[in-house]
Fold this protein.
Amino acid sequence: MPKLSLKEILIPTAALLAICVVITGALAGVNAVTKEPIAQNAQQEADAAKRELFPEAQEFVAAGDGIDMAVRSAEAALAVGYVVESQAQGYGGPIKIMVGITSEGVVKQVVVLDASGETPGLGQNVKNDDFLHRFVGAADFVTLGHGISDSLAGATGTAGKTVDAVASATYSSQGVVNAVNEALERYQTMGREQP
């Protein structure tokens, strides 16, 4: 094997280093340009999800720990409910949700903000309304059933509500259940901390 000269080693190394520096600079420039629009789009999506959960609310006031109070009128500050963002691990990554909880502490609606890591056609079905509607009425810890109907499991919208998993998406379904439970727990903790 012939011995390489210093020139034959340094020229390709310097060329690769220059290419890496240029690409890194280009990526940093793209990030600087797109960072703000991405953040604005995420905020618009979150605001739209809040409006979907509580269309009757005129504004949303931060209540702390990722919880917003949905207010019917700014003057009277009448809370119609609370919006809690939470996330939990699904099959392919974190599942981010937003839960609308009434002033009485009952789940009004669940919206999936991001389940992009879940398998298309299977795990991503946790975004479908027929699955999310199963959480409506939960007031306490939710468990995941495996083919047992809510009526047979005794779930009536009170403590211990059982929801059936999406077919062939048990891990994704469990991720949503865990995120809903986290949201309920944070809501209940907030209620205990207020005077």
Q: What stands out?
A: The chain has two domains: 1-53, 57-193.
